[in-house]
Model the fold of this input.
Amino acid sequence: MLATCHMFGVHMGWADITTAAPIAEQAALAAIMADSEDPWAHNALGSVYFSTRRLDNSLAEFELALQLNPNFSLALGYYGLALCYCGRWQEASEAALRGDFSGAYRVLTVAAGMAGQTEVATAALQELRRAQPNISLAWIANALPWKREADREHYLEAFRRAGLD
Done:
């Protein structure tokens, strides 16, 4: 749980990754060693990998967390974001619709924005702003762990279409 708390702070822009990630990674690995079937431990390690741009590893950890607990909404939200940041838009959209997490609103904003569903994108952005009032294009561009520059630009464009400036 310690690792999850540290990385959630990073994910939401409340904590510095250079301080939180090493602590969280050590705690997550220790949790997995203590109980390899703990979905929280795998989610925590997945979130470390996610935020430190090891996206393929993060996907594997989130998938394992979801195998252990298919109803784990936090893991599902992170999983959807990781899919999105890897350019796997359709899978990300499906994951977002199954989850209830601020990351799901990011994915839904992007999917709807890029599909031309402006009303849905705007509504999803409003919900995201309730959970993350400091959301901005600059934060998205600089703080999120993009695998490819082109995916980052698509993501930013979708947020612009939803009304984020």
In short: The first helix runs from residue 2 to 11. The mean pLDDT is 89. The two ends are 35 Å apart (CA to CA). DSSP finds ten helices and no strands in the chain.
